[in-house]
Amino acid sequence: MRALVFNGKLRFEMSYPDPSMEEGEALIRVLCVGICNTDLEIVKGYMSYSGIVGHEFVGVVEDCHDQRWIGKRVVGEINCGCGSCRICQNGIEKHCPERTVLGIVRRNGVCADYITLPVENLHMIPDSIADEEAVFVEPLAAAFRVVEQVPIASSHKVIVLGDGKLGLLVVQVMQMMRCDLTLIGKHESKLRIAQQQGIAAAFAEQYKGGKADVVVDCTGSPDGFESALGLTRPEGILILKSTFAQKANLNMSPIVVDEMTLIGSRCGPFGPAIDGLARGVIRVKPLVTRIMPFEMGVEAFGIASQRETLKVLLRVSS
Ligand SMILES: [Zn+2]
Ligand SMILES: [Zn+2]
C-alpha cells in the first residue's frame, strides 16, 4: 500500500506492507487525513517516533469480526491501552504505560491506504458530517477535554492564547459555555476566523483586557507558556494544551507566588465533538487551508508548517 513514512526523514512510499489485523481490531480504508502540529513535531524528532505518520483520519471499515461495523464511515481514538493494567481497568487507557498511540507511540499512523484499530476505539460518523469535517473530530475532542477538566460558567473570564488550529477549536468550545471569552493571537487572518463566529479576538501586543480566571495555552511554544502565565489571575487556572519537541527553560515561581493551578490537557471525548459538528455548532471548514492529493504528502507537511497555514488535509481515497 501507499504510506507516508518518517524514519529520520519523511518519505512517500508506494509499496509499504499492508497492516495485519489483530484480534478485536477492524481494518479501515483511509479516506482523508488531517495534518496536526503533533505530526509536525514528530518529523522534528518529538517522541523519537519512526513509522507511518498521522493520527487524524476518517475512513471506511472494510473488515471486522463484528459485521455491524463493515461499510461504516468511522473516526478513531488514538490511544490503545494494554487492557489489563490497573490504569486500563480504571477506564483511562490513554494513560496506560504500555499503550501504543496512533502515529505517535509504537503504532503505525493513518497516512496510509489501510490502517487497523481496536473496534472499541471507533466512532461512527453520521452522513451529515463531510470527510473534510470528520477529520477534525480528534483535535476537536481534545478541545472538549478542556471543559471536561475545568467546568466553565458564564461568570468566568476566559482567554484562549494561540490562534492556530487547536486554539480556534478550543475557542469555539468555550463559546458554547457563554463565558466572557477572548482569543489572543498573532495572525490577522486567523483572528478574523474567530471574529466571524462572534468571538472577541485581539493581537497579543494590543490586548488590554486584564487577567483571566482561566487561560488555555494553545500556542505550542515555550514562549507562549510565559505569556499565558502573565495572563492568569492569582489563584486562576492555566490549562496547557501545548506539546513541543524542545525542552523549555521555564520560570515556575509565578505559579507558586500567585498560587495558580496548572492543568495538563491532552486527548478528549469524541461524543461531544461529533455532536458539535453534526449540529453545526462548531464550524471547522474555515480552518481548512488546503486539501492535497495523498501523493503530495511530503509537500503537504512543508505547507502545513508555514506560518499562515491552518489545516492541511490529504485526500487518500474516495
Ligand atoms: Zn492531532
Ligand atoms: Zn494498560
Q: In CATH terms, what is the architecture of the largest domain?
A: Alpha-Beta Complex
* Series of H and E elements: EEEHEEEEHEEEEHHEHEHEEHEHEHEHE
Largest sheet: 7 strands, mixed
- Fold-level CATH name of the largest domain: Quinone Oxidoreductase, Chain A, domain 1
The CATH top-level class label of the largest domain: Alpha Beta
Number of helices: 10
The total tally of domains equals 2
Main structural class: alpha/beta
Write out the CATH superfamily name of the largest domain. Answer: Medium-chain alcohol dehydrogenases, catalytic domain
Strand count: 19
Please give the alpha-carbon distance between the first and last residues: 15 Å
Mean pLDDT value: 95
Using only CA atoms, what is the Rg?
19 Å
Report the helical percentage. 25-40%
Q: What ions, cofactors and ligands are bound?
A: zinc ion
Principal-axis shape equals globular
Strand content: 25-35%
Can you walk me through this structure?
The chain is an alpha/beta fold and 318 residues long. The protein has two domains: 3-136 and 284-315, Alpha-Beta Complex (Quinone Oxidoreductase, Chain A, domain 1), CATH 3.90.180; 141-264, NAD(P)-binding Rossmann-like Domain (Rossmann fold), CATH 3.40.50.720. Helix content is 25%, strand content 30%. The protein has helices spanning 37-42, 86-89, 131-134, 137-149, 165-176, 188-196, 222-231, 253-257, 270-278, 297-304; strands at residues 3-6, 10-13, 25-35, 51-52, 56-64, 73-76, 79-80, 100-102, 106-107, 114-118, 122-124, 157-161, 180-185, 200-203, 212-217, 232-240, 261-264, 288-293, 311-315. Strands 3, 5, 6, 10, 11, 18 and 19 form a seven-stranded mixed sheet that branches. Strands 14-13-12-15-16-17 form a six-stranded parallel sheet, sandwiched between helices. Strand 16 (232-240), helix 8 and strand 17 (261-264) form a beta-alpha-beta unit. Helix 4 (137-149) crosses helix 5 (165-176) and helix 4 crosses helix 9. One zinc ion binds at residues 81-82, 85, 87-88, 96, 98.
